[in-house]
Amino acid sequence: MDLRPPSHPRHHRSPTVGHAQLAGPFALIALVTTVDVLAPPDVHLGPFLAAAPAVTASFAGPRMTGFVGLVAVLAQVVVATTRTSLTDLNHTFQIIALVMISVFATFFAHLREVHEKEVTQLRSVAETAQEVVLRPLPDRIGPLGVASVYLAAAAEAQIGGDLYAAARTATGTRLIIGDVRGKGLEAVGDAALVLGAFRASAHQEAGLPGLVDYLEAAVSADLDGAGDEGESFVTAAVLEIPDAEPVVHLVSCGHPPPLLVLRAGGAELLEVDRPAPPLGLAGLVASSVTAQTFAFAEGDVLLLYTDGVLEARDGAGAFYPLARRVSAWPGLRPQALLDRVCQDLLTHAAGNTLDDDAAMVAIERSAAP
User: What b-and-e string marks burial along 215-241, b requiring 16 or more CB atoms within 10 Å of the CB?
Assistant: First the structure.
């Protein structure tokens, strides 16, 4: 099943302004006004009133910012009439300066509000496009139990191009997990290209090397047409799990190695001896595609993931130790394993948010049909 944590909803709304936030600017106005009225004649605290609309502009909209600025100006008028008069040159210039600052603060609050609306709209469009492209995986594929998760980063509209898919063949199951270089709708489009090529060819190509060559040709042709060869690429791991054999065949195209969580305890990284270059870069690097075989016994769980998992940092800047954490959780089924990893990952990340999107797929081999 596909999981999106509550901390990253699909629709992002601008945060509402609370009474506690507004209490600060109004308290500042009251404090400055009171002290200024009681201060000696040669002490003028009026310039401090400019901080009220300036601070309000950082979290409130233009209307509230303008209202706070108006209250600050009225407070300065009260100070002027109480201490001297409105015609006093010093107070007159303070009032004029405060009006100008309030106008500028209101204008910047308007620009910030417009920017937030644009970011929210872009994020919504990007997430909708990604949800159409990234179809949830079924809970069961042949003899395999499967769970998948996509964790959206908190970085404005910069949604990533993480991808995964699965396809059944006559003898087993083929899977792909990958990560497009870049962010935003362009990355989602590149992910759609890779997923489309995988779904079209996974049933037809006789072996994994031929499937990877097909994916490379599809990505390279698109990049050649866009004129950005060498600038864009896709890291990917392409796997085949036969129904009748306790093994997994793997081609790694510059992607983080899958993690095999052993039923008896512990975890192993499936690092291939001869990795292929990322999709889209084969023309720049002389290499051949070869598949490597690893043991995948009944009850073991294979964890696929993108680099957003490994690159999550805590407050001290330390990366998330996925292999070490997963080694301590033997015997978990795919969905339970992903739930545990997600909870632990967000707890590890500074601010409980990720800087980059992350995708994970867990596969368990059960008894062969």
Answer: bbebbbebbeeeeeeeebbbbbbbbbb
